[in-house]
Design brief:
seven-stranded mixed sheet; 15 strands
């Protein structure tokens, strides 16, 4: 069921929601959270489709905030709220309200959103694009338990990690981190099966991909060994090599579909590492709403700046990627950089132990560890 409201108010929207629920025979009692999507008109369709798909696992009230401040003085002077109320099959397993805010109202979105939140339910805010520099200080971000950004949509995706590290507040997360869950899980499980002393690691992936950088930061932080970053043509992350005295533990995924896990003394195995849709990433982030401490540690791990061979100079903090020639991207020998090593390497079993399947608190076994520039809907 769809109800269009023009020049309306939050009270009228709430009344329309109740009327739509009665007419469709549904109820708000089964919804577990409020998901606020802050987007523009061009990205709203994809974001709402992803949220509707995720609602089949997490029934929720979705509020899509579309700000239309207007460029002309007349448009800015016209303060108006238009809304679409969707209930039933049009809104997945929950209910959706699309809020179009015109004029000065666009600067006070929280005053419209607050009366529409589900009572006594968690609030999650997601910026598919154009996230604020400090999500927790944003008027909408300040009312949420979790704040989801996506560094891959920034003009400088890898450079955006530095901003995420600087502004991190418990409850923040980024879909660039969610995209490496499968990689972290497979690598930790491999070390569970074959405990080894890791002496170094190599991460291969396309340039300007924040997920590749975060995977390298996580490996360095967990294993305390040098991590080399190699630029490839993608898609996304293409391979990880864990160097041991007995040989390499390699997880290779050249096509973005299936991966191959190779370990010394064992036959190669095919593993599922398909790049996931945005709806799957959002659904994963909604499974737990406590702070992601492992993400916080990884994104704030200081590393050397990526550089072409022969470059001098390093910097602390999450790395920024310099310009890379097309020849360097096409050549598998490529551009490399090493993260700083700790004084002594840690054993694979102990080092992988703190990671968890969803990036939360530390686990007792590394098997529980979880683990663009690519298209918006693709995983790394």
């Amino acid at each position: 069921m769809k109800i269009d409201l023009t020049n309306t108010t939050s009270g009228k929207i709430n009344a329309a929601l109740m009327a739509a629920r009665r007419a469709s025979g549904s109820t708000a009692a089964g919804m577990v959270l409020t998901l606020v999507i802050v987007t523009d008109e061009g990205s709203a369709y994809d974001a709402l489709k992803a949220a509707n798909d995720a609602s089949r696992e997490h029934p929720s009230r979705t509020l899509a905030v579309i700000k239309r401040a207007g460029r002309s003085p007349r448009a800015r002077a016209e303060t108006r709220l238009d809304a679409e109320v969707l209930v039933g099959s049009d809104a997945g397993s929950g209910e959706t309200v699309i809020l179009r805010m015109h004029g000065e109202l666009a600067s006070h979105a929280q005053s419209v959103v607050l009366p529409l939140l589900l009572p006594d339910a968690p609030v999650v805010v997601w910026w598919p694009e154009n996230a604020p520099l400090h999500p927790a200080q944003d008027p909408l971000g300040s009312i949420a338990q979790r704040r989801i950004t996506d560094a891959v949509t920034a003009e400088s995706p890898v450079g955006q990690l530095a901003q995420r590290a600087e502004s991190y507040t418990p409850g923040d997360t980024d879909l660039a981190w969610t995209r490496i869950t499968g990689w972290r899980s497979m690598l930790a499980a491999a070390l569970d099966q074959r405990p080894s002393t890791i002496v170094s690691a190599v991460v291969e992936g396309e340039s300007y991909n924040p997920s590749v950088e975060l995977l390298g930061l996580w490996l360095h932080n967990r294993l305390r060994v040098p991590v080399e970053r190699i630029v490839t043509g993608g898609p996304g992350i293409t391979a990880v090599h864990l160097r041991t005295k007995d040989g390499d533990i390699t997880l290779d995924r050249p096509d973005g579909l299936m991966g191959t896990l190779s370990m010394p003394g064992s036959p190669d195995r095919q593993v599922a590492l398909k790049r996931r849709e945005t709806s799957e990433l959002i659904a994963e982030e909604l499974r737990r709403l406590d702070p992601d401490d492992i993400y916080a540690t990884a994104v704030r791990t200081p590393v050397d700046r990526l550089r072409e061979p022969g470059d001098a100079g390093t910097s602390s903090g999450p790395k920024a990627v310099p310009a890379v020639s097309e020849a360097a991207v096409a050549d598998p020998v490529r551009v490399t950089a090493k993260l700083p090593a700790a004084e002594t390497p840690a054993s694979g079993t102990d080092a992988a132990e703190p990671a968890t399947a969803d990036g939360g608190a530390e686990a007792k076994s590394p098997a529980r560890a979880a683990g663009r520039r690519t298209t918006r809907k693709s995983d790394s």
